[in-house]
Amino acid sequence: MPIFKKKKTAERILPEHIAIIMDGNGRWAKKRALPRTAGHAAGSKKFKEIARYCNKIGLKYLTVYAFSTENWKRPKDEVDNIMKIFKEYLEDTKNFKDENIKLQFIGERSVLDPEIQRLMKQSEEDSKNATGLHLNIAINYGGRDEIVHAVKDIIASGVKADDVTEQMISERLYTSGQPDPDFIIRPSGEYRLSNYLIWQSAYAEYWFSDILWPDFKTSDLEKAIDDFNKRNRRFGGV
Ligand code: IPE
Ligand code: IPE
Ligand code: MG
User: Fold this and answer.
1) Can you spell out the DSSP letters for 122-166?
2) Catalytic annotation on 210?
């Protein structure tokens, strides 16, 4: 009788940089006959849980989409509420220094409330030596806006058109120096990027799901990572 050797199961590989579009807060609230504000509060709580979990499993980079350059189109009350939740989060960051998470904000911050800008700077400063998860929070972030910024900077520095390289653009994005996201997760049943990391995601793998963000569980993240492990990434090769 032939002896079949049991195939050794390969080690699971963590993506290097996961990016999440935290979408579906409004619909989550609507399903419960709650105001949209309740959905944003639940989404914020979920964000903290998932970020902590990513840090625990040893992920190196996580980027979450909290507010887009297009989200200003929403009713003022809703925008104010999102900014209030963001401010509360910033005020709270000093209480979890022991988590060893390095915080960075990406997006155009100059138009945000000055107190919020101060708190953003403060929490980046306070966590700059953390060696755990590098957590980017995208706030007033737009991928096109980010590329326009980079192009303006290249032109302003006097680079000749013929000398422009992809690297020059990458280096001028908010994520400069970081690996590109290799895995992008979008819950809520929408199949689009909504202006998220459009340059950086050129070769990212995508994972879509109908789960609304406040319902997203760590086991869903685990499932997504398992799926990532089944992808065959070729980068244009064979
Ligand atoms: C994502 O949830 C949060 C932000 C865009 C700030 P939404 O508020 O977009 O929730 P839906 O898409 O309306 O359900
Ligand atoms: C993307 O969600 C932005 C964030 C999650 C912060 P949106 O709800 O704004 O995206 P669209 O409008 O469905 O494309
Ligand atoms: Mg949405």
Assistant:
1) HHHHHTTT--S-EEEEEEEE-HHHHHHHHHHHHHHTT--GGG--H
2) no
Going along the chain from its start, the domains and CATH numbers come out as 13-144+180-228 (3.40.1180.10)
Residue nearest to atom 9 of ligand 2 (CA): 71
Catalytic residue flag (residue 113)? no
Instruction: Give the residue carrying structure tokens 């390969």.
Output: 10
Helix (H, G, I), strand (E, B) or coil at 182: coil
User: Full-prediction pTM beyond 0.85?
Assistant: yes
Decide if pLDDT at 17 tops 70: yes
The bound ligand whose nearest atom lies closest to the alpha carbon of 39 is 1
User: Is the C-beta atom of 214 inside 6 A of ligand 1?
Assistant: no
> Phi and psi at residue 138, in whole multiples of 5°?
-90, 115
